[in-house]
Each structure stands twice: as C-alpha cells, then as structure tokens.
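User: Could you write out the 3D structure of this protein bound to pyridoxal-5'-phosphate? I've included everything you need below.
Assistant: Certainly. Input first, then the structure.
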Amino acid sequence: MKRIYLDYAATTPVDERVIDAMLPYFKENFGNPSSVHGFGQISDSALDKSRRSIAANLGAEPSEIVFTSCGSESDNLAIRGTAFSRRKQFGFNHILISPIEHPAVQATADQLSALHGFEVSYLPVDQLGLVDREAFENHLREDTALVSIMAANNEIGTINHLPEISEICRNRRIPIHTDAVQYGAHHEINVDTLGVDLISLGAHKFYGPKGVGVLYVRSGTKLLPTQTGGSQEFGFRAATENIPLIVGMAEAYRLVQEEGPSRREHLIPLRNQIINFVLDEIPASLLTGGSLQHRLPNHASFVFENLDGNLLVQVLDSEGFACSSGSACKTGDPKPSSVLTNLGYEPNWALGSLRVTLGKDTTQKEVDQFLEILPGCIRRVREVSS
Ligand SMILES: Cc1ncc(COP(=O)(O)O)c(C=O)c1O
C-alpha cells in the first residue's frame, strides 16, 4: 500500500537540493567555525554566508540572526531571555501571550510564572483565533516585559494580523515576539513589515533538516542568554554551531522565497477542495480556525461532533493516509486540545479534531484519493465513538 503523507505542519521531508547543499559539511568541511586554521575558516565562511542569506531573505541585518537548535529553542530564548532582561533592567514582571500559543511559548511562560514570579496574562481571541486589537491595548501594562503572539497557529491555521499589533507595541516600547514557525514556512517575511522584535523559525517545517532554527533579534532588543558558555551567536547562544544543518536551513529558506508564490498557488486550490468537500459532505462538521483569507495555504482543520479524533487518525493511517488530530504534540493524548477548548469548543466537538496539511509535492490525485475514503472512515469511527 502506498502511504500518503498529509501532515506537513508536523514536519516536512528534506528537499534534495537542501541535502546536496549540506553534504560537504558533513564530510570534508567538518571544521569548527571558531578554529583559526583553514578547516575552521571554511566552516566560518559557510556560517557567515548562511547568516547573510537568511538575513537578506528576512530584510534583516546578519547581526540580527541567531542560529538555534529548533523552533522551540527560539521561542524559549526569546521569551525567557527578554523576560529576564527586562526584569533586570526595569523590574518588569508582566508577560502577555495569546491563549492558543504553541507549548514552546505556553510552557515557557508557565514556568516563568511558577518558578520566577512573572505574571502571565492571556489575550482574548475570537473563535477563529484572531487577537482583538482593542482588547490587546487594554491588556498592556506599564510593567509589561514582553508580548508573544504567534504569526500562524499550528492546529487551526489562523494567520494573525501582526503588523497592527506590533505597531501598538512599538509605540509603547514593549518588545514583541512572534512564533512564525508555521507562518514562515509558507509566507515571505519582512521584519519591518511584520514590525515585531523577535521571530522564531524552524527549518523542518520548510523542507530543511530537523534540529535547527532561527531567532531573529531586532537590533537593540535586550536579551539574556539562556544557554551560557562560549561567545557564539553574538553571545546569545553558546555552542559550536551546527554548520551542515545551518547551511541546509539557509538553502531551504532561500527556496521558500524563490518558490513561495508558486507553492501557494498550488496549495490553495487543493486546500479549498478539502475544506469545501468536508463542509458539504460530512454531517456535523465544522472548519476550525481562520477563514480562507486568514489561513495557512496548506492547512485544513476540522472538528466533527461525537467522534474520537485520535481513532480517526488511526483509521486513516490504516487506509494509508497520515493526518493528525490537533497538534502532533497531542497525539495519543485523549484530552481535548487546549487550543480548541480555549476557542470555546465543547469536548464533544473538541475531541473530534482532524488536521490535514498539504505539502509542495502533494498531488491532485492524492487529495482525490483522500476525499474518496474520508467519509467512510468518519462513518466507521462515529459508529464506535457513540
Ligand atoms: C507554531 C509552532 N511553534 C513551535 C514549534 C516547535 O518547533 P520545533 O519542532 O522546531 O521545536 C512548532 C512545531 O510543531 C510549531 O508548529
């Protein structure tokens, strides 16, 4: 049986061109970029080239690009690093986040609250997951150390309107971070248009390798390192840089810019076909998250009433289709997703979630085949769920 992968928001396969770019740095070009000799200089120049490439693609300066080990680490460094720095500098203790952040943001804020006495407050979001501009302003305080609002949500695909929100933060001189791990995999980012001070990216969501990410740090943003040691990455993150993965990420990110428009043009009609089919053909089904305009181009997410979403994912898998229920982190977890409950879905809906996310090489035939088996799978799962 041919297996069809429809879980590209969880991770993506590494692009062949990315593998080709990385290989020499696993082999002959293995030097430590901090070494003075020729081996080191080759690695250092690859590091510098990768940094310049990512910076140029973000409209940023190379000195604003910090390489990390993943999107989660970028989120951790942004939040913990800024919170501690603002407390040290000004005594500020308040952190403002949305209630539907990825666990890498949520759990970091929770720990800062539980162990370090920060006060975390949550912004209201509407049922689509969009932050309300007016409510946002009302939640800012004199002692707000940091704001973090994701650019696009991994479970429900909603794209937030960050430029408006970041403008408010800029006027109040409050640093704002965005987790763009999903958004940056599909949309070109210009740091000045987005207007935020800190941006997290993770390579494995855009056909790069796992285990490498970026934190964009706007010049002048104060951050305490969370991993201390050597002076790599401008002192923000001690560790010998992982050159093959960084080179691969830079190439994968270059391809996002080069191919972004054509990838979106390919993905959006396939995504819309899935959404329209499900809403028309499957009884008691709802689209979760943003409307077609405010949604990631590859992302279709639903809830089905009175259905076990994890069982549906298993049944689909047995038919050869890999999807997910809620975020990948929730797989096997029978509790409803906190994202969906925070959006107001009752458990009899929230437990029945399905996320279908497409990739640049997903074909029309694969989508047709998926839609052919989906109603039968849902019927079977509903029979045993009720
Ligand atoms: C929105 C979002 N943030 C952060 C992460 C974590 O990224 P990584 O797996 O690179 O640590 C993910 C991955 O699922 C994500 O979707």
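The two ends are 30 Å apart (CA to CA).
User: Perfect, thank you.
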